[in-house]
Design goal:
By secondary structure, this protein is α/β, with parallel strands linked by helices. Helices cover 28% and strands 27% of the residues. It has helices spanning 53-63, 69-80, 98-110, 123-132, 165-171, 189-195, 229-237, 247-254, and strands spanning 14-15, 19-21, 27-29, 36-37, 88-92, 115-120, 137-140, 153-159, 172-183, 212-226, 259-272. It has an eight-stranded mixed sheet, with helices on both faces. A three-stranded antiparallel sheet has the order 1-2-3, with no helix packed on it. The longest helix is centred in the middle third of the chain and has 13 residues, at 98-110.
Length: 273
């Protein structure tokens, strides 16, 4: 039985080699890239669904070189404290799947019978996760309509991704956990200074929910030195700044051979009451 539910009727989905299907005969073909599209495009107002191929590839290239290992280590440390046998984990906004894959591999090394799924509104991202780890179910789907049943998840993750707290509350079991990872206000200030004449800090928004209590909060700050122009460009292209920056400002980044920048991450852990 799949972790996913039918986006039309809400019934549980089953899976064979080619298709996901529910008992009401709604069927969803498994793509050649081994993910399933559960995104109800007709009801979506988005013209461009999530990150494109350039952003996905840039993020893959950058993360696989270990630049954010300091963050991954803290995520795994937080996760280890709440893992248990038979754990169900869902990553909402999984991107290309680097964090998802590492968390899954860590979890199965610690406990038994782990089930994990990742969703992203980007089909390219869902395909990248499926290619990275076939043991993790992968779907193109919206964070505003997560194709997971009520109170199924033991651990729900959102790593640098938009999330809908009401959906997370719906799919998380009582005493289950929600781990939110987000950039702090001084994250990548050095990168922004290299692009823009005037730089301002983006303060993170607090998530408030009567259904969750915050049990832990961590902040990770460090300086990152990059001495590869390719890696600097990949860092730039994996951020939203790339599409919001003029061509003239983009050329400033392409001319850099070295970069020193702050990295700053927040990790909040919530338990469902």
């Amino acid at each position: 039985m799949s972790l996913f539910i039918c986006p039309v009727c809400g019934e549980k989905l089953e899976k064979n080699d080619k298709t996901y299907f529910c008992r009401n005969n709604h069927c969803y073909d498994i793509a050649k890239a081994k993910y399933v599209n559960l995104l109800m495009s007709r009801t979506s107002k988005e013209k461009r669904h999530g990150d494109d191929k350039l952003m996905i590839q840039a993020r893959k290239n950058f993360l696989e070189k270990g630049y954010y290992n300091i963050l991954l280590k803290e995520i795994l440390s937080v996760t280890e404290n709440i893992l248990h046998d038979g754990c169900t984990i869902v990553d909402i906004g999984c991107g290309e799947g680097w964090y998802t894959d590492n968390i899954y591999k860590f979890a199965v090394s610690k406990v038994s019978d782990v089930k994990m799924a990742g969703i992203d509104i980007s089909k390219t991202a869902a395909a990248a996760l499926a290619k990275r780890n076939s043991s993790i179910e992968s779907a193109a789907a919206s964070a505003k309509a997560v194709p997971i049943g009520n109170e199924v998840c033991d651990i729900c993750l959102s790593v640098f991704a938009p999330c809908d707290i009401s959906e997370i509350e719906r799919i998380t079991r009582k005493n289950g956990y929600f781990i939110r990872v987000y950039p702090l206000e001084d994250h990548l200030l050095g990168l922004k200074r290299s692009i823009y004449d005037s730089v301002y800090e983006n303060k993170p928004k607090e998530i408030v929910s009567d259904g969750f209590e915050k049990t832990a909060k961590k902040e990770i700050r460090s300086m990152l030195h990059i001495d590869s122009s390719e890696d600097i460009i990949n860092l730039f292209m994996m951020t939203p700044y790339y599409y919001k920056t003029s061509r003239a400002d983009q050329e400033k980044i392409r001319g850099l051979s070295e970069l020193d920048t702050e990295i700053a991450f927040g990790i909040d852990v919530y338990r469902k009451c």
